[in-house]
Amino acid sequence: MTARRIADSSVEMTEILLPQHANALGTAFGGTIMSWIDICGAICAQRHCGRIAVTAYVDDLEFLAPIRVGDIVQLHARMNQAFGSSMEVEVEVKRERAGEAHLARCAVARLTFVNVGPDGRPAPVPALVLETDEARLRAKGADERRAQRLAHRKRAVD
Amino acid sequence: MTARRIADSSVEMTEILLPQHANALGTAFGGTIMSWIDICGAICAQRHCGRIAVTAYVDDLEFLAPIRVGDIVQLHARMNQAFGSSMEVEVEVKRERAGEAHLARCAVARLTFVNVGPDGRPAPVPALVLETDEARLRAKGADERRAQRLAHRKRAVD
Amino acid sequence: MTARRIADSSVEMTEILLPQHANALGTAFGGTIMSWIDICGAICAQRHCGRIAVTAYVDDLEFLAPIRVGDIVQLHARMNQAFGSSMEVEVEVKRERAGEAHLARCAVARLTFVNVGPDGRPAPVPALVLETDEARLRAKGADERRAQRLAHRKRAVD
Amino acid sequence: MTARRIADSSVEMTEILLPQHANALGTAFGGTIMSWIDICGAICAQRHCGRIAVTAYVDDLEFLAPIRVGDIVQLHARMNQAFGSSMEVEVEVKRERAGEAHLARCAVARLTFVNVGPDGRPAPVPALVLETDEARLRAKGADERRAQRLAHRKRAVD
Amino acid sequence: MTARRIADSSVEMTEILLPQHANALGTAFGGTIMSWIDICGAICAQRHCGRIAVTAYVDDLEFLAPIRVGDIVQLHARMNQAFGSSMEVEVEVKRERAGEAHLARCAVARLTFVNVGPDGRPAPVPALVLETDEARLRAKGADERRAQRLAHRKRAVD
Amino acid sequence: MTARRIADSSVEMTEILLPQHANALGTAFGGTIMSWIDICGAICAQRHCGRIAVTAYVDDLEFLAPIRVGDIVQLHARMNQAFGSSMEVEVEVKRERAGEAHLARCAVARLTFVNVGPDGRPAPVPALVLETDEARLRAKGADERRAQRLAHRKRAVD
User: What whole-number distance in Å separates Cα of residue F13 and Cα of residue F92?
Assistant: First the structure.
């Protein structure tokens, strides 16, 4: 299994916020944005491991600014780190609004996906090539979050 | 604004997993479960503060066991803590499967919702009455998570 | 097959009315509420008989008060009676609206579901334990409605 | 307000059963068919009274034969009777299946819709012209069902 | 394989435009109307060839007048011509609006569907009986469009 | 109104084909792909003119290869030409399938969108900067298609 680069699996996804995606206030219903984040992240993980990947964990999904009906919504996903059979993906959500000169950052999240093999069990994923200092920093953050999770689970069991 | 009790806002939501909710493997698509978690949590927050509440933060959403087409899905939401104008809600997802004697815990998440006033700005929420040791322990956990988030944001700005 | 109690299969389902569920007047589209009633009733029947149950009959579905975008919607389903291979379930729909002190009853319906066996044919269902006078009264009503339906069909054929 | 004929408001609606409309058995999910019945009936009522009509009552919705993914679904709605501000509509559902010489009748229902005026209150509807013995028979049935419902409500109140 | 007549496969489909079908302007979202046109045309093709037909080509889909939330939408599909294993279908979309005396033509399109056999390959379709001058004129137009498409593809390959 | 470049409005959209998007054969339902093409093209037009644009015309939408449940779907939209108040956009659809070394081109379409001003009437759009021979060739094709459409309408009226 050859290691893969971040650019090989990065995803750009664009949507437009329709009334069917809104809540009673005319802004994006939280579940719509979560669904889009999950799809965008899952495509990134599937591109990295070459097979359908299932969501295992959502860490620190933060909503930063509202999205209104009629706004264009950009989602970007990129691999942060590959573990044995799982992958941490970061997804960022931005809005384009008529009359606004700059994009507004609306949400950001980190998700962990697991590669599921044909037998339904976790299967190994390719390593991630870390080419820049920024990439190494993100991977280090992902390593720490994973260590924390495993320590937390161990405590819960002990 | 009178303080409100946990039981006043707790939510039970039941669904059945249909093919329209599944991924290519015949199990629940992650975004479907996230949408249901968001709705269930938002109803809990709306019951506590008496107005539509918007999702601000999702912390540690963990998928523990798969849900298949035909499974009954139970979601339970309860308040963990009320802050100035926001609320931490915990949502748990279980499945009932024909032929299984016990419920399986499939996902758990903590979400923070903000009470939005008629002027579109955060508005104060009632305090939460903490009547048991378990409730006080959960509220303490929510306080710590909030302190961490605020410290983290301060670091990012400094 | 052991008889089962009403509490073993009762269902509580909670939703929030989003713009995607509304008609051109901003109130609940009838088909949305019917779908929710059908899901809620089907879960109740599936809990009672332990297998996927299909809708056979809807009797006296009555809409009593409108539901608006932003309202919380409660659905409750409970078994009325078990017949050979079918079950009568009653579903009640209530709304919670910000600023209203009391729940408003919005719809009520009785549905009959059939237990479908692995061979695709109707299969026997457990009996229903009737523990209170109210339960026996409801079961009697269900018996009468079923007798009327069978008589009506017989007339149509004769 | 001129009386209107049955043919003026009759509706033909055709659909194809896609996987998104199915339950775990690969046949039509009950709620899908109910939604289609409600839409078909609501269009008929809207054609008769010239304004958006809301569902008030569903009487004797009966499922007669299953519909599978890939089947073509026909729905037909026709006015049975017009009352002061409400209308009884009958909807019939048939399936066309590849390799079957004849249509199969899959469901039938009677629904009552109310004409809602600009002030949100029930508004008068045109009378229905009854030109054949069959039409008069159907209208008589609708009259009897309505009388029964009103008597039933009166009993519940007394 | 017996030739089939136009009336044997013609389709009438009726919908009502709900908020879930609208864009941010409160009129029909283009993709909703395209989906309905595709379903209506696919049913026509499936009726003609007796099996599920897949969309191969959309030619000259033109939007002529807007459809608003609350409008009733009529779609009509009819066979224009049958080729070896494909069929050209014409679909017309009209709106009925409260207070308008006449139907407004809102969209028209021509689609080509292919009959897919059990082996997943194109399979022959019945010929179309052309009984009127108008039908022969439409079939001639379809023949010319098909010849143009084939010539265009040949040029692209040469 | 400053002229805008093609790169300023180009769109990349990524989706994954879920069971809710499929037909009875387990491949993409035509209407799903048409909806995605319409959204992708509408975002491109909205980016070019800075306001919500409505679909006016779909020209030569061709399906070239099937998309299966589980495939990743890429859509790319780019401006071909800007006219007075309308824009021609080209959308291309590709699939990524596990185990296939290369992307497969699945559909291609040209759509015309109209810029709708605040008064609901067509409003002028910025000119398109044509920087390469390929861009000028595409714009020329768009000019010819528009001339043909106008001539065709004139013939229909004369």
Answer: 10
**Pairing mode, strands B128-129 and B4-5:** parallel
From residue A103, how far is each of A32, A73, A95, B61, B100 by CA, in Å? 20, 10, 6, 28, 50
* Residue ranges with strand state E in C17-103: 53-63, 72-82, 86-96
The helix (H) or strand (E) run that includes residue F16 is strand F11-16
Contact C54 D63 (CB under 8 A): yes
F27 touches chain E (CB under 8 A): yes
pLDDT, residue F84, reads: 93
Q: Give the integer Cα–Cα distance in Å for B111 and B125.
A: 16
N- to C-terminal Cα separation, chain D: 36
Closest by CA to D69, choosing from D103, D32, D109, D101, is D32
Q: Extract the tokens encoding C114.
A: 């059939």
Residue with tokens 């409008």: E71
Cβ atoms of D81 and D142 closer than 8 Å = yes
In this structure, what DSSP letter does residue C125 have? Answer: -
What does the alpha-carbon distance between residue C77 and residue C92 come to, in Å, rounded to a whole number?
Answer: 7
Kindly provide the residue ranges of all beta strands, DSSP E only, lying in chain D, ordered along the sequence.
4-5, 11-16, 53-63, 72-82, 86-96, 104-115, 128-129
CA F82 to chain centre: 13
Residue in chain D lying closest to B71 (CA): D24
Residue pLDDT, tens place only, B113-156 = 999 888 889 999 999 999 999 999 999 999 999 998 888 877 76
Answer yes or no: do D52 and C25 touch at CB < 8 A: yes
Cβ A34–B38 below 8 Å, yes or no? yes
Distance CA A13, CA F13 (A): 4
Query: What is the per-residue pLDDT for D82?
Result: 98
Give CA angle at D103 (D101, D105), nearest 5°: 145
Contact F73, F103 (CB under 8 A): no
Q: Is E52 on the interface with F (CB under 8 A)?
A: yes
HEC profile of chain E? CCCEEHHHHCEEEEEECCHHHECCCCEECHHHHHHHHHHHHHHHHHHHHCCCEEEEEEEEEEECCCCECCCEEEEEEEEEEECCCEEEEEEEEEEECCCCCCCEEEEEEEEEEEEECCCCCECCCCCEECCCHHHHHHHHHHHHHHHHHHHHHHHHHC
Distance from C-alpha of D1 to C-alpha of C28, rounded to nearest angstrom: 29
Q: What is the mean pLDDT of residues F90-99?
A: 94
pLDDT tens track for A131-146: 999 999 999 999 999 9
H/E run at residue F76: strand F72-82
User: Tokens standing for E139?
Assistant: 């079939």
CA distance E142 to chain F (A): 14
Q: To which H or E segment does residue B112 belong?
A: strand B104-115
What percentage of residues in chain E have a pLDDT greater than 70? 98
Question: Does A27 contact C at CB distance below 8 Å?
Answer: no
DSSP B31-61: HHHHHHHHHHHHHHHHHHHSS-EEEEEEEEE
On whether the CB atoms of residues B108 and B124 are closer than 8 A, the answer is no
- For residues C109-114, give the mean pLDDT: 97
Instruction: Give the A window 64-123 contacts with F, CB below 8 Å.
Output: 70, 72, 96, 98-99
Question: Closest Cα to residue A60, out of F22, C108, B156, D53?
Answer: B156
> Among candidates A76, A14, A5, A10, which has minimal Cα distance to A45?
A10
Note the pTM of the prediction, 2 decimals: 0.95
- Kindly report the number of other CB atoms within 10 A of residue F68's CB atom: 14
Q: Chains contacting E with at least 3 CB pairs below 8 Å?
A: A, C, D, F
Q: What local confidence, expressed as pLDDT, does residue F158 receive?
A: 67
Q: Do E20 and C24 touch (CB under 8 A)?
A: no
Are the beta carbons of B19 and F18 separated by less than 8 Å?
no
CA–CA distance, E34 with E96 (Å, rounded to integer): 18
How many Å is the Cα radius of gyration of chain A? 17
